[in-house]
Amino acid sequence: MTSINTKSRPDNRYFSPLPAQRELATELYHTIVDLPLICPHGHVDPQLFADPDYNFGSPTELLLIPDHYVFRMLYSQGISLESLGISRTDGGPTETDHRRIWQTFAEHFYLFQGTPTGTWLTDELDSVFGVHEKLSAKNAQDIYDHIDQKIQ
What we know:
The chain has helices at 19-32, 47-50, 59-64, 68-76, 98-107, 116-127, 140-151. The protein is mostly helical. The protein has a domain at 55-151: uronate isomerase, domain 2, chain A (Orthogonal Bundle). The longest helix is centred in the first third of the chain and has 14 residues, at 19-32. 14% of the residues are buried. It is an enzyme of class 5 (isomerase). This is Uronate isomerase. Pathway: Carbohydrate metabolism; pentose and glucuronate interconversion.
């Protein structure tokens, strides 16, 4: 398994390489880094925040099925929406095995390399769920189990 070295990722890794812009961005970042995140646009069901007994379901239900950035990328590369658990408008069959959907995602995770979605997912897996390995077909089920344990 490939380990992700999160210790070497500086806070300013997404800032401009231009010194003046980088300095200003760093200054601004340090003035707001500890403030709560308030965002009018989001992909998280507001019920998650309102209901203390909210059930996250499975890692697939939480991270994949509702994320149109994930399923659109995979669909653009020939992965059917049905195989990703996305409901059909005609009510036809879709994959319901969340482990199989997760496995498909992991087998194609390389497609997200160098994309904002890939950066977000990698950071989310690391900082939120403590997954310090690169997601792959080989470790997909172990990582699924790890996340599943965290959200129960």
